[in-house]
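Support case: NDP complex. Customer-provided input:
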Amino acid sequence: MATVLCVLYPDPLDGMPREYARDAIPHITAYPGGATAPTPRAVDFTPGELLGSVSGELGLRGFLEAAGHTLIVTSDKDGEDSEFERRLPEADVVISQPFWPGYLDARRLAKATRLRLAITAGIGSDHVDLAEAIARGITVAEVTYSNSISVAEHAVMQILALVRDFVPAHELVRAGGWDIADAVRRSYDLEGMTVGVMAAGRIGRAVLERLAPFGVHLVYTDKHPLPADVEQRLGARRIERLEDLVAEVDVLSIHAPLQPETFRLFDDAMLARMRRGSYIVNTARAAIMDRDAVVRALESGRLAGYAGDVWYPQPPAANHPWRSMPHEAMTPHMSGSSLSAQTRYAAGTREILECFLDGAPIRDEYLIAEGGALAGAGAVAYTARSGEASPGSSGR
Ligand code: NDP
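Agent response - structure generated as follows:
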C-alpha cells in the first residue's frame, strides 16, 4: 500500500466556500493540437470546486483510502521541521503544485528513501532537483496542458492591465475618486504596439493566438520556429536571438521554462536593451528575472510596468520588493490554478496515480523523468545536467 504525501496551499482565510460564483464550468475534453484532457476512471469531486487547497485534497482521499492507501495532506512545507519534510521518509508518492511548491532539493530527496513518484499537479517541475531525482530513479510527472490556456488568459489580462494602467485607475474609484487625468496619464492602447513572446510553446503560442486580433505586431523567439502557416495566419515573425527581440518590442510576455540557461536571464544588461517605457509580463518563473534589476528598471523608467504571478521563492516574504515596486500589476501565483484549471489538473493527478498504482504506463506527455533519464515531455522541455540542481529546487 502506498503513502501519498500531498502539499497544497492553505484554505481560504474564511474557510472553504459554501457556495461558488458560478454553478458550472465548461466541460473541456481536448486541448489545441488534439491531446485529450485527463481521462481518469472516475473523479470524486464536482468540477468547479476548490480542490487545490488543503481541504480540497485534489479530490483524492476517497479514491486512495478506498484502495487502502494513505493520504497525508499539508500546507506546512518549508524548513526542516515542516510536516512535509518530517513525513518525507514515509512517502512513496509526493504531490505538489507550483503555486505552493513542496521544494524537493537533493537534501530532501536523500531523506525520501521510499519515494518513487513526484507529481506536479499543474505544469512546471523546476521545484524538483531533476538531476537528483533522475539519479535516484524517481519518476517525475506533471499534468501537461491542464492549465496552459488558463495562464495564457492571465498573461493577456496582465498585458492589458499594464498598458491601460488598470490597477491605479481601479484603486482610484475604490477610494471614492473621479480624477480622470490621473487615471489616464499612463494609459495607452495596445493597438499598433509590438508584442514579443519569449518561447512559443503551449502557453506562448496561445498568447500569440489571443493577441493577434488586437492589431499588434507579433514577434517571438523560440528554439524552433512555429509552422510557417501558423506564422502567416498570426502575422508572427520569429527573431532568433532574445537580445534582438527585447530591443524591438513594446511589450514582452515570458513563457520559457526555468532552466540553467534561463536562470536570471533578465539582468540589468538585458533590461537595458529594451526600449524606454517597455512592459514585461512574466507568468513563467520568477527566477528568470534578476529580482532587483526589475525594480531598478521600473524606478528608472526603462520599464513602464511589470506584471506576472510568479515569485521567488514562493510564498515571497512580506517585504519582497516586488510587492511595493512602482507600476506593478502582480498577482499571487494563481494563473494556472483557476477553478477551471484545478478541475483538469486534479483529474490528471488522479489519472497519473491510477496508472502508477496499477503498474500501467503514464501518458508520455505527462512524463518528465522516468527510469533514470528525462522522458516524454521532459526530454523535450527540460535539462538535467548531472550535479546541477534545477534552479528553483532550493526554494531560495
Ligand atoms: P512548453 O514546453 O509547451 O513550451 C516551452 C517552450 O519554451 C518550448 O517551445 C521551448 O522550445 C521553449 N524554450 C525552451 N527554452 C527556451 C529558451 N531558452 N529560449 C526560448 N525558448 C525556449 O511549456 P508551456 O508553454 O506549457 O509552459 C511554459 C512555462 O510556463 C513552464 O515551464 C512553467 O514554468 C510556466 N507555467 C506557469 C504557470 C503559472 O501558473 N504561472 C502554469 C504552467 C506553466 P522547443 O520545445 O521548441 O525546444
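Residues 122-124, 147-148, 151, 198-204, 221-224, 255-258, 261-262, 283-285, 309-310, 333, 335-336, 380-381 surround NDP (CB under 6 Å).

Case will auto-close in a few days if no follow-up is received.
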